[in-house]
UniProtKB/TrEMBL annotation:
Species of the source: Phytoactinopolyspora halotolerans
Region feature (Disordered): 495-516, 881-965
Composition bias type Low complexity, residue spans: 947-962
Major location category of this protein: membrane
Name this protein carries in UniProt: UPF0182 protein G1H10_28655
Membrane topology, from the record: Multi-pass membrane protein
Annotated keywords: Cell membrane, Membrane, Transmembrane, Transmembrane helix
Highest taxon of the lineage: Bacteria
Subcellular location(s) of the protein: Cell membrane
UniProt family annotation: Belongs to the UPF0182 family.
Compositionally biased spans, kind Acidic residues: 495-507, 885-920, 929-946
Upper taxonomic lineage: Bacteria, Bacillati, Actinomycetota, Actinomycetes, Jiangellales
């Protein structure tokens, strides 16, 4: 009867099969997706390197990385598998009954069916990790393979320095990898022996089977043998390791630790032999004694004995004991950082002034830079932006151009595209990636003068570009602010779509452009479009009509980024600069070869040594926090702003590191002889190299080991007095004439103060003109210790505490929206002493226009201070009314209103085919209204007007803080009246 009842429904067999099939399907799909992404990344990288003609760099890296990955990954995987299999095959056929073995039976039963899979998976995983680690050492491997000799021997072993630079790092890695292989093999073997009864920890009688004992003895012997090799390498490592005083071996290292390491090599060798013999002898007694002796020897000889020598021999007379090794450190450091040729001269600086004192300094004074590259970029932005979607790098850069037969220092910046400047309504894919593709032109201003209103005096300006730089290709497709990617190019006859210039002089209307260079990767084929649509996760690359058969995609467009990709072996300077060379706008980038294994050379953090108040600005890239102890400016690189061409020029052909890399990548570096004359005119000494050298010379200007040890003559780079941060003052490019020289030279300069004090102790410069026969010559003017010469911080305090300057600065910053900003505080060795010059800017808001205008110049020589609307006037104030030299300023600065920015007003343009208007310019302030008739003369004196203005300003501040708004308004009226009277009286004097 029960058969009449329906059976309850059971689980669906089909559903179970589908569930079981889904998991492997998802796994396969995930693997395919990862493989596809890897192929996309690989192939797009290959296409990019093809586009810049550095395919060999890509293939060499790929082959080297892949080979190391395969070889070292296989070594690790094979070690895992072989030791696991051997341990399994050596398992005892009989295992004594015990609680321990009964517990392990469950694990053996669970593992046996999948033993091969588990071992294979573990070997694969560890092998991949090991292979990836080895692939990351491709540069170490290539230097070992292609390294050459330095021709210089270390002072301890007489070994060529090429061993430390090229061979030692690779052998150290190989030994460490050997330790990893043996250690993991030992772990796998021990676990397998334990699971299958070869090791019995809780069983009475024999703890390790003879077979397991032989296997483990072999592995331990290999480990100890590697330890002996490591001891041998440790001897050389003493010369590149740090101690409490310096980098390199000190007295205790050389006289105690070095003999200890030599002894330990032999002890480790004997111990390893005992373990190898134990493969057949199979008794732990002798190997155990050997291992104990090795451990005891290591503790006593390499730990306790050097400590005793340090405490009882060195410390009581440390200066005498360490002097020979300090001498080694000084010599090696000065050579490694190329500072051994520094010319340190005594400079008896004058502090008194007299008329005509600067008559012999015509090579320095006319070129004093009043346009600070870190302050004036907002003026470039407001006066030369032209459209809201253009921008300029901050800070600007310093370069030189020949104008009317005279080489002048200039402050330059490239006008780059700024996608963020497009209005929100126009932010779409078409505009961002096919219309606004490039910047336009170079903007340059005289560094040593301004217009009479305080704005920059332009050498090159506007769109289309006009000025004194001649004809050149002005379009900037590759720059520091270029978009992530742009799609350019079109078939012949197609209507141009790229926004080019707002007003064509020929047609009077907007002009469009079609890119005709070869700087990008072709995406005319469907395959390449799919690749880049995946890479940038953008379907429009695949679907948009803007992508055609002639389209190229431009990406990785930053100058530093491009050099770093084609030359991954170089350290790139943090500050590329644009220049016009041979009819092209190019970026110039300095690059360095570095090492961290130069014997006895002092190690330093690259990031810390090159940081200053300029690098603290977000626009500049800081160097990585890598430690180095050798550097050479071996390469000068250029990146063409139009087609992105990267050219690496050999600069220091005596550098063995450069020669090694040129062997790794033949034909990737262009000979120095191919640098054009025009390019040579713009090459300069690099900032980061100079900052490294000045940091090392803080301590290593001293060559006497006892003075070095005492630290009584330590120099310090002073903090930047114009910055609110506790950070170094940057070096400054300026043309100066050193004492005793007949000509001014483009130089990079810095100052030093004694440690713990603010007065000046030295002024240092390097010849930065690549055309000059003394290029790279470091010269330090050392001041006498018995003469007080104020340092930059003290001079800045003197300026601020001067009553006349303080009152004038109060007036300058008293207007609504006004703010006083100080420019770079320059130091020049002129007039037999040291001259400080600092420009003063006023940042005043007029509508949306906010940018600095040069208003005053402050000068100090000795204790005398000059303050005027021109450098000439300030110098004459200091030097009894006649400095003896003429500046190149075109007149005194007039205290006028903020001028209207140049450009095209607030018109908007409509880009064809995009159906979007480009962003309107920011509103520009109208020019100040000019009075219809001359104002009546003011009453009183200038001093009274200034005093009235000061009092009115204080009254206004007090009223505002207390909420007395009627009194506040009345005080502002009095302030305006006093400022007006002061202006009239100052013009009437």
């Amino acid at each position: 009867m029960s058969q009449n009842f329906p059976r309850p429904a059971g689980p669906s067999r089909g559903g179970g099969r589908r569930s079981r099939a889904l998991v492997p399907t998802l796994i396969v799909l995930a693997v395919l997706a990862v493989a596809y992404l890897l192929v996309v990344n690989f192939w797009t990288e290959r296409l990019w390197f093809d586009s810049v003609d550095f395919t060999r760099v890509f293939t060499t890296q790929l082959i080297t990385r892949s080979s190391l990955f395969v070889v070292f990954g296989l070594l690790m995987a094979v070690s895992i598998v072989v030791n696991g299999v051997i341990a399994y095959r050596l398992r005892p056929s009989y295992r004594p009954m015990s609680v321990e073995q009964q517990s392990l039976d469950r694990y053996r039963d669970a593992i046996d069916p999948v033993r091969s899979w588990v071992l294979g998976a573990a070997a694969l995983l560890v092998g991949i990790i090991a292979g990836a680690s080895a692939g990351g050492e491709w540069t170490t491997f290539q230097l070992w393979l292609n390294g050459t000799e330095f021709g210089v021997e270390d002072p301890q072993f007489g070994t060529d320095l090429g061993f430390y630079a090229f061979s030692y790092p690779w052998w150290r890695y190989v030994v460490s990898f050997g330790f990893a292989i043996v250690t993991l093999g030992l772990i796998v073997a021990a676990i397998t022996h334990y699971i299958y009864g070869g090791i019995r920890l809780q069983t009475a009688g024999e703890k390790v089977s003879p077979a397991a004992q032989g296997h483990l003895s072999l592995l331990i012997g290999l480990f100890i043998l590697l330890k002996g090799v490591a001891y041998w390498l440790d001897r050389y490592a003493m010369l590149i390791d740090d101690n409490d005083l310096f980098t390199g071996g000190n007295y205790a290292d050389i006289n105690a630790l070095l003999p200890a390491k030599t002894i330990l090599i032999f002890v480790a060798g004997i111990c390893a032999i005992l373990f190898f013999v134990n493969v057949w002898r199979r008794s732990w007694m002798l190997p155990g004694i050997g291992a104990g002796l090795l451990v005891l020897s290591a503790v006593l000889l390499s730990g306790l004995w050097p400590f005793i020598v340090q405490q009882f021999q060195v410390n009581p007379t440390e200066a005498d004991r360490e002097a020979p090794y300090i001498e080694r450190n000084i010599a090696a450091t000065r050579d490694a950082y190329d500072i051994d040729g520094v010319d340190i001269q005594s400079y008896e600086a004058e502090t008194t002034v007299e008329a005509g004192q600067l008559a012999d300094d015509a090579g320095s004074i006319p070129g004093i830079r009043l346009m600070d590259p870190t302050v004036i970029p907002p003026a470039y932005q407001q006066l030369q932006q032209v459209r809201g979607f253009y921008t300029f790098a901050q800070p600007a850069d310093v370069d030189r151009y020949e104008i009317n037969g005279e080489v002048v220092d200039s402050v330059v910046a490239a006008r780059e595209i700024d996608i963020s400047g497009i209005s929100s309504e126009q932010q779409n894919w078409v505009n961002q990636h096919t219309v606004y593709t490039h910047g336009f032109g170079m903007v340059a201003a005289y560094g040593n003068r301004s217009e009479t209103d305080g704005s920059p005096d332009w050498i090159e300006e506007d769109i289309p570009s006009r000025g004194d730089l001649g004809d050149y290709e002005p379009r900037v497709y590759f720059g520091e602010n270029s978009p992530e990617y742009s799609i350019v190019g079109a078939p012949e006859g197609e209507e141009p779509v790229e926004y080019d210039i707002p007003e064509d002089p020929e047609t009077g209307g907007e002009r469009r452009n079609t890119y005709d260079g070869n700087g990008g990767v072709s995406i005319g084929s469907f395959f390449n479009r799919v690749l880049y649509a995946t890479k940038f996760q953008e379907a429009n690359i695949l679907l948009s009509d803007r992508v055609n058969s002639e389209s190229q995609i431009l990406y990785d467009r930053g100058p530093r980024q491009r050099v770093e990709k084609v030359a991954p072996w170089l350290t790139v300077d943090s500050n590329p600069f644009p220049t016009v060379v041979d009819g092209r706008l190019v970026w110039v980038i300095d690059a360095y070869t570095t090492l961290n294994s130069y014997p006895y050379s002092q190690r330093v953090s690259l990031e810390e040594a090159t940081s200053d108040s300029r690098i603290a600005r977000p626009a500049l890239a800081a160097q990585p926090d890598d430690y180095i102890n050798y550097a050479r400016n071996s390469v000068k690189a250029t990146v063409d702003a139009y087609d992105g061409t990267v050219t690496l020029y050999e600069w220091d052909n005596s550098d063995p590191v450069l020669q090694a890399w040129m062997d790794v990548f033949p034909e990737s570096v262009t000979p120095r002889s191919e640098i054009s004359d025009d390019l040579m005119n713009h090459l300069r000494y690099p900032e980061d190299m100079f900052k490294l050298q000045r940091r090392m010379l803080e301590q290593y200007h001293v060559t006497d080991p006892f003075t070095f040890y005492e630290g009584t003559d330590r120099w310090i780079v002073p903090n930047d007095p114009t910055s609110n941060l506790d950070i170094d003052q940057p070096p400054y490019y300026q043309s100066i004439q050193l004492p005793g020289s007949d000509e001014g030279v483009f130089s990079l300069t810095t100052t030093y103060t004694p440690r713990g004090r603010q007065n000046l102790i030295a002024f240092m410069t390097v010849n930065a003109d690549a055309r000059h026969e003394d290029y790279g010559q470091l010269t330090a003017l050392r001041l006498p210790g018995d003469t007080q010469i104020d340092g930059p911080g003290q001079v800045a305090n003197a300026f601020e505490s001067n009553e006349e300057i303080a009152s004038q600065l109060t007036l300058l910053g008293a207007g609504e929206g006004a703010n006083v900003e100080f420019g770079n505080l320059l130091t020049l060795p002129v007039g037999g002493g040291l001259l400080y010059v600092q420009p003063v800017y006023v940042v005043r808001q007029a509508g949306d226009a906010v940018y600095p205008l040069l208003r005053r110049v402050m000068v100090r020589f000795g204790t005398e201070i000059g303050f005027d609307t021109s450098l000439q006037g300030a110098l004459d104030d200091v030097f009894r009314g006649e400095s003896g030299v003429e500046t190149e300023e075109e007149g005194e600065i007039e205290d006028a209103e903020v001028p209207e920015p140049e450009g095209e007003g607030t018109d908007t343009e409509e880009p064809p085919e995009s159906e979007q208007e480009p962003p309107a310019d920011s509103e520009q302030s109208p020019p100040a209204d000019e009075p219809d008739e001359e104002a009546p003369p003011a009453d009183g004196t200038l001093e009274e007007a200034i005093a009235d203005a000061q009092q009115a300003w204080e009254d206004a501040q007090a009223a505002q803080s207390e909420g007395r708004w009627a009194d506040y308004g009345e005080a502002l009226d009095r302030l305006e009246d006093a400022l007006s009277r002061a202006d009239q009286l100052s013009q009437g004097e």
